[in-house]
Write a structure and sequence with these properties.
heterodimer; A: about 240 residues; alpha/beta; six-stranded mixed sheet; 9 helices; 10 strands; about 35% helix; globular; B: about 240 residues; mainly alpha; 15 helices; about 0% strand
Chain lengths: ~240, ~240
């Protein structure tokens, strides 16, 4: 369970995230929606302990992210925006490094890497340098490192951004498969994604939480039933 | 293996996965040879020691250490991998230390590869090998001091070129503080106590005795303290700058 209490973050005079509060339970797949620059990434950076909130707090399964970050960070698998990794390493060396940092050793580590590679369909490129991979493969490498230690919480920042339709489909399948026993947070600005994978949708704009309901309820708000229309009408003014 | 060692090992391997390490080693060794034999007059001095080698170390480090240091944090910030690294269950200070240690050990390797000079001087005469070992240790400590400055400034910018220029400038300042001409002109304006204090901050002043083989504990402590301060500053700079 993740509790977010009155979370805010300012950059100078600019308020990126404005007093967000919500709770997410295991089994939920939360779609974090919003226009570009709405504060989605900033929120995720605070959830994962990368950025310090200006005020408010994040509690991950009872561990406060700022007063006790290590146990909280251990429970989270995170795909940062753009799926950064170490370009000069091979896929295997990179996953091995992450697994080692995550405290996995020996057989356990081997097994964890094999499972993550299998789930992310990376077998073909396992010993290639990450530098030489296509965008889609790099994204999958990012997802593989996030699920390596079988985390209770999976936070994915725009996991399908820049992928072709087949790759998108594959990533969504992957999220659905993982979601059964985990708590997943996915940020996106693609609305079809929400209906495809999420059990709950949040729309934020200018750092404020505007909507928090299931995708079905959200869709029922408009006569056309199209999420796009609702999204525009909700965020268009801001 | 401790998390610190895992991160340090990755950093160490990263040096060798690009031509950077090999270019650095070759340039360092060629310049060391040139400084020792041409500038330092190794043969002309007709003495069985490596002073002509060690005397030019600060000036070599001035340009070569920033070249090693500039990528340490700037690259992580540029590629965004810093976000990955800092959300792993690791303490910030162990990451800072791991990255520093990997680079420092790399410089130790470069220094160790100057061993033909040591063989040469032992072949030609009977040098005081204890003094030479002490000077090597001192040289490595001084390199660590330069490196710690580079670490900190590397965290301040995403551009490696800017980091390089800044680091060379700041390192040059810390070398310059020990140059006698500057200290003499300062003692005309400032009280002697302050001038002595300034001289004590210089990386050159503390290296002077060490390069002659006199390894004073105070000099060693100075370098270690210097490194610790800059690494602590590195942590603060990362906290401030990582959001950008």
């Amino acid at each position: 369970m993740i509790q977010v209490e009155n979370l805010s973050r300012q950059f100078g005079d600019f308020t990126a995230v404005d007093n967000l509060s919500f709770t997410i339970k295991p089994g939920e797949v939360l779609g974090f929606l919003g226009p570009n620059g709405a504060g989605k990434s900033t929120t995720m950076k605070m959830l994962t302990g990368f950025l310090r909130p200006s005020s408010g707090r994040v509690v991950v399964f009872g561990h406060d992210m700022w007063s006790n970050p290590l146990p909280a960070k251990k429970m989270i698998g995170y795909l940062p925006e753009g799926a950064p990794s170490y370009a000069e390493m091979s896929v295997h060396a990179f996953l091995d490094f992450i697994a080692a940092v995550r405290g996995l050793q020996g057989q356990e580590k081997k097994h964890a890497i094999a499972v993550a590679v299998e789930k992310s369909a990376l077998n073909d490129v396992l010993f290639q340098t990450i530098d030489t991979l296509s965008k889609g493969y790099r994204r999958r490498v990012g997802i593989a490192q996030a699920i390596l230690h079988d985390p209770s919480v999976l936070i994915l920042d725009e996991p399908t951004d820049g992928l072709d339709p087949n790759q998108k489909h594959h990533v969504r399948e992957l999220i659905l498969n993982l979601a059964q026993d985990k708590l997943v947070i996915v940020s996106t600005h693609i609305l079809e994604e929400v209906t495809a994978v999420c059990t709950r949708a949040m729309i934020i704009a200018r750092g404020k939480l505007l909507v928090d309901e299931t995708p079905a309820v959200l869709a029922a708000r408009s006569e056309t039933g199209k999420l796009d229309d609702i999204f525009r009408s909700i965020t268009g003014g801001v | 293996m401790s998390p610190l060692m895992i991160v340090a090992r990755r950093e160490w391997n990263a040096y060798f996965s690009t031509p950077l390490a090999y270019v650095f080693l070759v340039v360092f060794l060629v310049l060391c040879g040139f400084a020792t034999f041409e500038l330092g007059g190794f043969y002309l001095r007709n003495q069985a020691d490596l002073q002509s080698f060690f005397a030019y170390q600060p000036w070599l480090y001035l340009f070569l250490v920033p070249a090693i240091a500039m990528r340490i944090w700037a690259e992580e910030r540029k590629s965004g991998s810093i976000e990955l690294l800092l959300t792993l269950p690791l303490k910030l200070h162990s990451i800072v230390l791991a990255k520093f240690l990997a680079a420092w050990l790399f410089i130790a390797l470069a220094l160790a590869l100057t061993f033909p000079l040591w063989i040469t001087v032992n072949y030609l005469g009977e040098p005081d090998n204890g003094a030479i070992l002490a000077a090597y240790l001192g040289s490595w400590l001084m390199a660590g001091a330069f490196l710690s400055i580079g670490c900190c400034l590397s965290a301040a910018s995403k551009s490696q070129v800017i980091v390089f220029v800044l680091t060379v400038s700041v390192c040059f300042l810390f070398v310059l503080l020990g140059v006698p001409q500057l200290l003499n002109s300062l003692s005309g304006v400032l009280p002697q106590v302050i001038v002595d204090g300034i001289a004590q901050l210089s990386l050159l002043t503390h290296f002077d005795a060490i390069s002659r083989g006199v390894l004073d504990l105070r000099d060693v402590l100075f370098y270690l303290f210097f490194i610790a301060c800059w690494l602590a500053a590195t942590g603060i700079v990362i906290e401030q700058k990582k959001a950008e």
